[in-house]
Design brief:
The chain is of the alpha/beta class. The chain has 10 helices and 6 strands; from the N terminus they run ααααβαβαβαβααββα.
Length: 301
């Protein structure tokens, strides 16, 4: 669903640009030069959208956290990496998620092996995990993914979708439990799943950049899930007031996150914590440092 929306947006942009270029050159037909110019214009347009969106998010998030000298010194390096991650995710990979990701098709696993289920965040799809999934598979982990849909649904509805995917993955692999590895909103959905369904099917949880206590940036979002990720939401109060699940949890987060405001919202009592810097919210899923940390967490189990 998310990929169709992104593809539709790109298709509309491309059509408008082609029409404009055809009119500009006063030609009734589309020549190869016009098509190439439209493609270049399309990439430039989306790059500008990414830059503007990032600037707005970073400026808004800065209102809720002080930026010391060390943070300011990291700004340019972090900004370039985050812009590349945003463009790659939302323009290149996620619109064409089926082409990049294919099917999970993990099949049966050997006794004792625990499959890893990757759970994406807000306004994303399973294409988010393209780079990290390749890295984990290269390290011999059994990895599967999920699309949390509809994209703007409430977190409880997405939790039900996760429950269905966990059951299907266990049936496919023959495993007794899975490890949940999540990004952003996926961490909240996974914690809600553990509270509602218990830990019988889950061996561990690793969250990347999860807004465990909400984020002020969610006020800029749309959809019920965005409202539920606001720091003062009733949904979050209920989640954090509930009992802590008796399962191993690790939280990996970055001081330079432009989505989590303030970034220490990723801290979770009782969880092993890894604090990074020099990475933005989306750049975490393309980071060798994060991949190495994930490997260390997964081999503990």
């Amino acid at each position: 669903m998310m990929s169709r929306r992104l593809c539709g947006g790109l298709a509309i942009e491309a059509l408008v640009l082609l029409v404009i270029l055809a009119v500009v050159v006063d030609s009734g037909t589309l020549t190869p030069a016009i098509v190439l110019a439209a493609c270049a214009a399309l990439l430039l347009l989306n790059a500008c959208v990414v830059i503007v969106a990032y600037a707005v998010l970073r400026r808004y998030a800065a209102r809720f956290r002080p930026l010391g000298g060390a943070a300011r010194a990291r700004t340019w390096r972090c900004t370039v990496g985050e812009l590349l991650a945003l463009f790659t995710t939302f323009v290149v990979i996620q619109p064409f998620e089926r082409w990049w990701m294919g099917k999970d098709a993990v099949g049966a696993v050997a006794p004792g092996r625990i499959p890893v289920l990757l759970v994406h965040g807000y306004l994303c799809n399973r294409g988010l995990w393209w780079w990290l999934r390749r890295g984990l598979r290269a390290r011999q982990f059994v990895v599967a993914t999920i699309n949390l849909e509809p994209p703007l649904a409430g977190l409880d509805q997405l939790t039900a979708r996760l429950s269905e995917r966990v059951d299907a993955l266990l049936a496919e692999t023959g495993a007794e439990k899975v490890v949940l590895v999540t990004h952003s909103m996926g961490g909240l959905v996974s914690r809600a799943y553990l509270q509602q369904q218990g830990v019988a099917r889950v061996a561990g949880l690793v969250t990347l950049a999860a807004p465990h206590h909400g984020t002020q940036v969610a006020r800029l979002g749309c959809g019920r899930n965005a409202r539920e990720m606001q720091p003062d939401s009733e949904w979050l109060r209920c989640l954090n007031a509930g009992p802590s699940p008796s399962v191993s949890i690790a939280s990996i987060w970055t001081l330079d996150d432009e989505i989590l405001a303030p970034p220490h919202t990723s801290r979770l009592p009782g969880a092993r914590e890894t604090m990074l810097n020099g990475l933005g919210h989306m750049a975490m899923v393309f980071s060798p440092t994060v991949l190495a940390r994930l490997e260390a967490e997964l081999t503990r189990r």
